[in-house]
Each structure stands twice: as structure tokens, then as C-alpha cells.
Amino acid sequence: MTLEKKKKLSWAKKNILWSIITVGSVAITLFGIFSQDVREVILNGVILCLSCIGIG
Amino acid sequence: MSFRATFRLRTIVQILGFIIPNSYISGWLTKPHLYTGSAKAFAPPILNCYACPSAFTSCPIGSIQHFMVIKAIPYYLLGVMIFIAASIGRFTCGWICPFGFLQDLLYRVRTPKLHLPKFLHYGRYLFLVMTVFLLPFLLSNTVFCKICPQGTLSAGITQVLLNPELRELIGTLFWRKIIILVIVITLAIFIKRIFCRSVCPIGALLGLFNRVSLLRLAVDYEKCTKCGFCKKICPVDINVYENPNSADCVRCGLCTSCPMGAVKFTTIFANEPIVENADIAIHYNQTSKE
């Protein structure tokens, strides 16, 4: 295989991988939003975060 | 864009990156309190403690740990982080993160400079796996928050100063965190972004996607003279011509001011396949000469 072909193949692989990762991350985000009470969990974390202050 | 113009633009954006997520001024006034509105549910991929009285947004690392503590998978946080990483890589580390900005400022102090040993670059992956996912899950405790210097600086010190009643609760954890903060600040004067490169779990997670992110750096090896300008100005000490999309790269763009015009920002969809690896480029140059 010539170097030019190798480069094109590598370029195509990266594009496909990028598309899969992007679509997958959007799907994971939406799944998280609709299946978990994200706001509640994060805000509970904020309120209880005494470790950040150095107390606990 | 010239080096000076890129540098100035980046500094302005970094200042805004510090101010905007920390613009809840009423948290400092009268009775100090934390913001708990809708914006707090958003966790941008920057190290900015959500227990700071002026913090508008959440810390992704603190929030992920909290999900692990309650034995839940942080789908939303991981999804957002991976989406941003797949789009712009570690761009937020280089342009927005307040703790990265602080380290950039500290490194400007005129002293003899040191290099970070290569093996320490892997430390951030250890911190990511152990202190953000595994230990919080096993111990039901936010382990990374207990060592986080950014938390000490923006939340610990400020909360203790603003709330006299908290001063009575200070224990060994607080002083241990202060020691860690002092060590990190001191080392950051001598070593370029030591925390980002060897400890930061956000950088570890985002950096995993640098090689396949939409925004990327490309080197034109026909123009590159390997003069070393890119490594000299790089805030994380990368030899850009060897590995422009290294997991360490914070996408600051300073190297795009290369005097030979050999480095540029591009996208994964660039029409021409990008030559990324120096070995391929050397081989390419050799075969084209033959």
C-alpha cells in the first residue's frame, strides 16, 4: 500500500471514529438527562462539599 | 496571527474564563452563601471549585465523584465532557481553566526553570481512575476534593475568611490541603503547568480525545525547520513537530505563530489528509526525493 493510500485510510478511520464518539457522547448525555435527576445530585454534591473547604 | 496577538487574545479569554464562572458576587456579600440555581447543574470542563461563594457553575470532577459516592454512573457529565473533548480537545484547559491560567502566570516569574520527567505525565491518569472513580465508589468519599489545590484556593480559604463559624471547624484536612496548595504553587513557578500535566483528571479525560478531536493542529513538514520555537513557547513543553495532537496539548494555539508558518489549526474534516506523525513525514520526504 502506498503512503498516500495509508494517509487516506488513516484520515477516514479518524473521521469515522470522531463521528461515533460524538454521536455516542450526545446519546449518553441525553440518556443521563432523562434517566437521572442530574440537577438534584449535583446540587446535593455542592451543598455537602465540605471536603472542598477542608472540613470533614 | 502573530505570537503577541495570540498571547494577548488568550490572556483576555483566560481572564474572562476566570471571571464568568465566578461572577456570583452576591455569594460574597452580607451573609455568604453558595449559588444553587439552574446554572449550577452545568459543569464546564475546567477546574473551578463549586464550593467557591462566587461559583456559578459546577466542577465536573467534584460532580462525577458525587455520582460515584451515591453509586450512580455520571452519564450526563461524562457525555458532556466527551462531546466537548471530541469537538475541541483540551482547548478549555488552554483558554478557559482558571487554575491553568494561574499556573501560566506563576511560570512567568523569573527563576531557573525545570523540566517535568516523562513518567510523571501518566500521573494524571492514575488520579483520574483512582481518586475520581474507584476510591469515591469504594470509600463513599470525594477523594480528589480532599487533595484538590483549586478547591483550597477558591473555596477553602475564601469560605474560612468569610464565615467565622467555619474557622472553629478547621482540622488537619484544611492544613493538609494548604500544604498541597503551597507545594503546587511553588512547583508551578519552576515547571510549566505541572498540575495540568501530572495531576489534573479533567486534562487526563479531555486529552484522551486530542488525537480524534474536531479541532486539531497540523504541521507542514515541508516548511518546518525543527527550530524548536514551538517547544520553547509551548505552555506544556511539547515538541509540536513530533506530535502536534499529543494528549498533553492544551490547544493554546501559541505554536501557530511559528515563524515558518508550519503549524496551523485545522479540523478533522480538512480536505487534505493531515500528516501528523513525524516518522511518516520523514518517510514521505525521503520517498518524494527518490
Defining traits:
heterodimer; A: 56 residues; mainly alpha; 2 helices; elongated; B: 290 residues; two-stranded antiparallel sheet; 13 helices; 2 strands; 48% helix; globular
Reported for the largest beta sheet of chain A, the result is: none
Query: Into which percentage range does the β-strand content of chain A fall?
Result: under 5%
> Topology as H/E string of chain A?
HH
Helix content of chain B: 40-55%
Quaternary status: heterodimer
Q: Shape of chain B from CA axes?
A: globular
Overall, the morphology of chain A is elongated
> Which regions of chain A are unreliable across 5 or more consecutive residues at pLDDT < 50?
none
How far the N terminus sits from the C terminus of chain B, by CA atoms, comes to: 36 Å
What fraction, in percent, of the residue positions of chain A are helical?
over 70%
Rg value of chain B = 20 Å
Mean pLDDT of chain B: 88
Helix and strand content put the structural class of chain A at mainly alpha
Beta-strand segment tally of chain A:
0
Give the N-to-C terminal Cα separation of chain A.
61 Å
Sequence of strands across the biggest β-sheet of chain B: 1-2
Mean pLDDT figure of chain A: 82
Strand content of chain B: under 5%
Describe the structure.
The complex is a heterodimer of chains A (56) and B (290). Chain A has helices spanning 3-35, 38-48. Chain A is mainly α and 56 residues long. Chain A is elongated. Chain B is 48% helix and 3% strand. Chain B has helices spanning 3-19, 60-69, 75-88, 91-95, 98-107, 123-139, 149-162, 164-167, 172-190, 194-198, 201-207, 229-233, 278-289, and strands at residues 215-219, 263-267. In chain B, strands 1-2 form a two-stranded antiparallel sheet. Chain B starts with a helix and ends with a helix. The interface between A and B is large, with 41 and 63 residues.
